[in-house]
Design brief:
Blueprint lengths: L1 H21 L33 H11 L62 H10 L8 H10 L3 H8 L6 H14 L6 H6 L10 H11 L19 E2 L12 H4 L8 E2 L21 H10 L21 H12 L4 H4 L2
Antiparallel strand pairs: 1-2
């Protein structure tokens, strides 16, 4: 009996050792992400959650997921369906189409430079990019999918190893999908326009023309009055404003805060790459930059929540030459290197 027990014990140990010897240990060694552009820290504070630092592996996974229709029901849509990388991650449609071709009710915002943003969505309905991604997948008007299906599809498509490289686990969760896509979006930085090369990097080949200089001076003046909301550098202010589009404005930020003082307020969009991201405003009502300046010049509508900086008795009254100059300056914010990468 003792001999039999000894033999059984030996066999058990032998097989146990064999399993350990043939096992493969995965390596989790993420590489911190380095931005390709020099970022002037004084004007561009980074907003990166402590629990989702950017890594090369996370950004790569996020880029893959961003363009993959696997995240939507019936594999119908991807993030690029609305956020076109060739258009600074915006769209030239007034309203893009969601689930089964349903038109959205908001113009698609650019996803460029969101690493410098505190709030997300025209009404500020999301406090983080991760939250925005989680919402998009299940939104019945957007991807219309449920997370259980998404995870099954990702596992079937062999994504477990990619998640391990990015996050140290092959257990795919909604939170990790959102983190990967958020990392990719935060990696999309545009700071190499003609303006940047002249203003930040003293490039002698980026000197402004007289018309661009006039437009820049108007932009910074109380007459042009652009700089209050579109702060030089990021060209937004991480705030919400009622810019006088309508005398009876939509609720805007008030839909989130339920405060009457927030009626008509929408997030300030960045002016970077603005020349290629038409149409403009939260509802895409203006097709050209000229139409935008016509509005600000002569058609600002008063309402009780109108931003104090907008209260110019109907507008800022630019003449046609001044409008042309401001548009010339705005075109210096186009980052060709970013758009062509």
């Amino acid at each position: 009996m003792k001999k039999a027990l000894f033999i059984l014990s030996f066999i058990f140990i032998l097989f146990s050792c064999g399993e350990k010897d043939t096992g493969i240990t995965k390596q989790y060694n993420p590489t911190p992400y380095q931005f390709s552009e020099q970022i002037p820290q004084r004007d561009f504070p980074l907003y990166i959650p402590a629990d989702n630092p950017l890594t090369e592996e996370g950004v790569e996974l996020g880029k893959d997921l961003f363009s993959n229709k696997i995240l939507s029901v019936d594999n119908e849509l991807s993030c690029t369906s609305c956020h076109n990388p060739d258009k600074a991650f915006a769209s030239n449609n007034r309203f893009d189409k969601g689930y089964k071709g349903k038109l959205m009710t908001r113009n698609t915002m650019s996803l460029t430079n969101l690493v410098f943003n505190k709030y997300f969505g025209w009404e500020g309905s999301h406090s983080s990019l991760e939250e925005a991604v989680l919402s998009t997948i299940e939104n019945k008007d957007e991807f219309h999918e449920n997370w259980d299906n998404v995870i099954v599809k990702l596992l079937d498509a062999g994504y477990a190893d990619k998640f391990y490289k990015a996050f140290g686990t092959d257990d795919i969760t909604p939170q990790l999908v959102a983190k990967a896509i958020a990392q990719y979006i935060r990696s999309n930085v545009s700071i190499n326009s003609k303006f940047d090369r002249a203003y930040y990097f003293d490039d002698p080949n980026a000197r402004f023309t007289p018309l661009e200089t006039k437009g820049y001076e108007l932009f910074l003046s109380e007459k042009g009055d652009c700089f209050h909301c579109h702060r030089v550098g990021p060209f937004f202010d991480n705030r919400f404003h009622n810019n006088g589009l309508d005398a009876n404005p939509e609720r805007g930020l008030a839909d989130v805060t339920d405060e009457a003082t927030d009626v008509g307020k929408f997030k300030t969009g960045s002016l970077r790459n603005i020349a290629i991201t038409a149409p403009y405003m939260h509802d895409g009502r203006y097709k050209t930059l000229k139409e935008v300046l016509d509005f600000y010049s002569d058609h600002v509508n008063y309402s009780s929540t109108l931003d104090p900086n907008m209260n110019h008795m109907g507008g800022i009254f630019l003449d046609e030459d001044e409008k042309e100059a401001v548009i010339a300056f705005l075109k210096t914010l186009t980052d060709e290197k970013y758009l062509n990468k």
